[in-house]
Design brief:
disordered N terminus; alpha/beta; Spore Coat Polysaccharide Biosynthesis Protein SpsA, Chain A; 2 domains; single chain; 10% strand; globular
Length: 367
């Protein structure tokens, strides 16, 4: 009797299920563009489209310089002109609106490189086509480790004002590498909570979009750009999406559980564990006026107010940076304030009807 031969090559081989959905190529995705490593390109520098945008940037840069009567043009002025020129091209229809996000950033990067090619001392930038103004808020304390790299990434974006709140310490002279014409340093030695420092910075910011970033762990400019883009008329709040790296619920920490339960209790389970308690995030001017700068002192409460105010809340990408208090009791207290605010607005059951229990047998059915 002949024995049917099997495909022995497949024996013992573990079959890996195919990836589906928007994250099917996540393992092979390139990291966001960073100014600290300018060699990392979002698009191939040898592609015909990228080369075309570079040459167009060269022509526009030369034409812009010819309109200036002064011999020496400040690099900051040239930088702002490159940002404005790229935004005009995008919203003027020159750049196809249907291109992908990475292509948009990559072509803008090549265009800006060509535009600023005539300036030997010009720093590399990463244009994002914006119709509104943007500011960044950074809250730091001594010894200011990593702050120079954080500011370097922010400096590459179309951000007109960077507010650095230094809290908890007296600072005499700031390091020279932190000096920048767009950076405003505010020193408050009596402030001991970074959330309070960010709220103070937001109160003083004069821009349509506010970007809040961590002062210790730098985030690539290419990742931060998406937060600005989302809050430029598309959404009111852009959160840092950490759900892509979430693990099983029983393996999560107490902070993640509180954040996810708060979202679920306020009918936003789609936000998962994403919250205003996690940096970076961006707010529109409408969101800041609705929430109130003072409410940002308690991020979980501000998050609850934003949801109940029906603000447009989206995720601005996964930046991988997190600034959370080390003491879970602080987080628990913040979320207690959030639920207290929610109960005051929506009632004891947060607006949810009770269809399971028979309350008619009670003396007071409304209890």
């Amino acid at each position: 009797m002949r024995t049917r031969r099997k495909h022995t090559a497949a024996i013992g081989r573990k079959k890996t299920p195919a990836r589906t959905g928007p994250d099917k190529h996540r393992s092979y995705a390139k990291r966001p563009a960073t100014i600290a490593n300018p060699k990392r390109q979002l698009v191939s520098p040898y592609s015909s489209t990228a080369s075309r945008w570079y040459q167009e940037g060269v022509r526009d840069g030369e034409g812009w310089r010819q309109t200036k009567s002064t011999a020496g043009i400040p690099p900051e002025e040239a930088r702002d002109a490159a940002f404005e020129a790229w935004s005009d091209k995008y919203y003027g229809g020159t750049v196809t609106n249907g291109i992908g996000w990475k292509q948009l950033l990559g072509y803008g990067q090549k265009y800006a490189a060509g535009f600023l090619g005539g300036f030997a001392d010009a720093k590399p930038i990463l244009p994002v086509p914006l119709r509104t103004t943007a500011a960044a808020i950074v809250c730091a304390t001594a010894p200011l480790l990593g702050l120079d790299r954080v500011l370097r990434e922010l400096d590459a974006l179309p951000i007109r004002q960077i507010i650095v709140v230094i809290y908890g310490v007296e600072i005499g002279e700031l390091p020279e590498e932190l000096a920048s014409p767009r950076v405003l340093f505010l020193i408050w030695p009596n402030v001991t909570d970074p959330d309070v420092g960010r709220a103070l910075g937001a109160k003083l910011a004069a821009a349509d979009t506010l970007l809040f970033v961590d002062a210790v762990k730098p985030v690539a400019a290419g990742a931060l750009a998406r937060f600005l883009w989302e809050c430029d008329g598309r959404a009111d709040i852009a959160l840092n999406d950490l759900s892509m790296r979430s693990i099983w619920f029983h393996q999560r920490g107490g902070i993640q559980r509180l954040q996810e339960f708060l979202n679920a209790s306020l009918n936003r389970p789609d936000l998962k564990s994403n919250s205003l308690s996690t940096l970076p995030y961006a707010l529109s001017r409408k969101a800041l006026n609705t929430i109130g700068a003072a409410t940002l002192c308690v991020p979980a409460k501000a998050h609850a107010v934003a949801i109940m105010s029906k603000l447009r809340i989206v995720t601005g990408g996964s930046a991988g940076s997190s600034a959370l208090p080390s003491d879970d009791r602080i987080v628990a207290g913040d979320h207690a304030e959030a639920w207290h605010e929610a109960i005051a607005v929506r009632g004891d059951r947060l607006g949810r009807p009770d269809r399971r229990r028979n309350r008619t047998i009670l003396d007071n059915p409304d209890r």
